[in-house]
Amino acid sequence: MRDTYHEQLDDILAELERMTRTVSTAVRRSTTALLTADIRQAEEVIAADIQLDAAGEGVEEKVFELMARQAPVANELRMLVAALRMVADLERMGDLAAHVSKIARLRYPAPAIPDELKSVIEEMGSVAGRMVDGAGDVIKTRDVEAATKLETVDDEMDKLRTNQFRLMMDDSWPHGVEVAVDIALLGRYYERIADHAVSMARRVVYLVTGELPVAIGGTAAGSGAGASTPSPNGN
Amino acid sequence: MRDTYHEQLDDILAELERMTRTVSTAVRRSTTALLTADIRQAEEVIAADIQLDAAGEGVEEKVFELMARQAPVANELRMLVAALRMVADLERMGDLAAHVSKIARLRYPAPAIPDELKSVIEEMGSVAGRMVDGAGDVIKTRDVEAATKLETVDDEMDKLRTNQFRLMMDDSWPHGVEVAVDIALLGRYYERIADHAVSMARRVVYLVTGELPVAIGGTAAGSGAGASTPSPNGN
Known about the structure:
The structure is a homodimer. By secondary structure, chain A is mainly α.
């Protein structure tokens, strides 16, 4: 029975990793839908979010059952609590990917993004997708160094967002208010996806090392991750 | 020992309620800081967010200890898991309140909000504050009806946001891109605070009744709450 139990713990991690792949696909497809005004793809991403939520609920059920039936020891319990937080991260990332598609749908048949701004959004989508994949890799490999590298990728996202604001606030911005509002919200969605990826990676680091990565605390992602792991002195 | 245990469970709920009062104050003070360009108040809200995170970590520690040492039965476990989710909601709401203050700080000494738009923002801040208080009341009273009423207040928030977009997208919008971007992001922050309040109330309903409120699923708040409670058929 104990063996089956540990298999179940492994299953939960495997399921979390699968969910990151689903989210990564959603992020990439949403970005494509946005850049090419592809309404079919946008609708598919929005519809697929329900399946992601269902997958998440499935993981929650498994976690809850293990907690209730197996009286997990502290290490296992820490893993199960982290799994619950990661499910919440993944469901939220799925929502955010769907939000990107909803902007594509709102502006359809017009393209939401003017040609000159496509490269910025494309890059944001690409960085966000890479970060989600990175979080999946970290869950799979438990590679602490890869988790740390994810924070560097997140810095890229911050730079892209700063750059985006600079473009919009320039007096010569020619695209008007509607585009600016769309771009500002899209930037926020991609940034939040990235934050959640960082939070997930930090949770894994905490599980592996028992310590939080250095960068924790001050940043938005930091406070997210802070919320996600039992305090080191709390176990 | 069992008595102390149940006292500890009650303490956790009391602490969560206290945290909602802290968040509610932060939301109201941030709105005032924003509307009156009050940099001191903005800085205080931003600084106080660290204490909220610390309070959240304290609750997490207590929850984790109870889980590890007391082998809670299903009902208690469900409550503890919900408490973890509510802590995450509250920490996130605190971050969002701080984001509001950061916009006030960014534009200081200029006021971030033009006079004609102050009433919209004031109302958003007021609705958000009421909803946070409402979530606190629901935790305290476990009143299912009050939780349901919170969903109606959330509809007000949605209307305010739609109205805000209508103003900004009007060709005669006179405030330029910078203000539009600030307003769009502020609207998003207040909306998310409201979503978290609804999620918290739903969690309490689920704890009390064993069933999720009807409105769950489709909306953004719905998917948040969906992530937050163990699936009804999962326990």
